[in-house]
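Hi L., both proteins are below.
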Amino acid sequence: MKKLIMVSCALLFLIGCAEETPTEPEEGKHPVFLGKWFCDDHPVGVAVAPNGYVYVIYWYLARGGGVAFFTPTGNRLGEWSITGDYRVYDIDIAQNGNVYAIVGNEIRYYTPIGSLLGKWGSPGSGEGEFYDPDGVAIAPNGNVYVLDSGNGRVQYFTAAGSYLGKWGGVAQCSALAVAPDGNVYVSHTGGECIKYFTPTGSLLGRWGSEGSGEGQFKWVREIAVNKSGWVFVADRRNFRIQFFTATGDFLGKWGTRGTGDGQFENPYSIAIAPDEVIYVADEGTNRVQYFR
């Protein structure tokens, strides 16, 4: 059942907001801590709308979960719950502000304040069917890419859910992101690496291995790509964020294990705002931190 709070703020949401435009991190340096806010239990996903508002997936252990949305500095504007036995597993935001979410074996899409617009998908292995999907990402042209993890493939669709195509080679993968040039990046948890593909699925390359060195990962999770094509990776069990060029050259890293500013206990998800502010959902400390 959907519930919205602070209606006046929700109306402000539709108008948009203005934020200072930062510079992106320089090569060899990492973004610096700007701020944080605490969320409901287990913030396991984060995405940023074109106007800078931040959407966070929350999981209440006792009553399921949903999506909450905030100003860029963490003022809570509203939320909507997901009823039934399903949880939200990933979200992304289209250029028109619509919110796409994985709920069970479905893709659902909502208005910016949580009214359901449509959905598609059902359990299975056919076209437009899913088995434990883990990731959703919106391309610059509006196409919707879904990491259909249980079937070991990526499927892609129009914004309204019409099937366009698929490719394999992504078994044991956990998240995906689409770059400004349309290329698709997939985090391969089983192989502790990043793979990247053309928009129609031709493999372009890969990088990474298991470990704690530069360009190595332990339980690699979500990824995000900024407007320059740099790839930011949530390296969960190394308690850090690493970032790379579009082809995998190491650029920098930040984070250590802990609860202080700029530290992480379980950096689960990462998203980049239009102004290049970087948001990290740290599920282990129930907070969102942001950097630039």
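That was the first. Here is the second:
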Amino acid sequence: MSTRVMLVHMRIPPRMTRIGAAGALVSALLLGGTAVAATPAATAHPAAVHTATVHIKSVGSVCYSKLPSQAHDTLDLIDKGGPFPYPKDGTVFDNREGVLPSQSKGYYHEYTVVTPGSPDRGARRIVAGEKQQEDYYTADHYATFNLVDFGC
């Protein structure tokens, strides 16, 4: 299953201007997607509409067999405890993006998945939780995550 980003475009009617941009943002968070809030300026001038974009992210899953071979190599190194090719491998992942399930600081650690042809670490990572086989793969530097399913 792939990671889904839900985007819903909403236009808040002028009578809702009393709730303002903050209310529109709350509505977007509850419904998921993009909030378009009508402000007093928009009521006077309908063309003047302010937009706040909210991206609701979720964690999907990916079969181990569908991962690139370099991700298999990284998972093998994690199981062995290293050695890792990059000094930042094994460092704490803070989950600042808030996509992974909320846990205490130090629960998640990140590891580089080598990207052939990349002059640096690239965007691919494995983020491992403390539980056995709680490994998340990201190919886009933490924008989306897929929990690795080792059973398929």
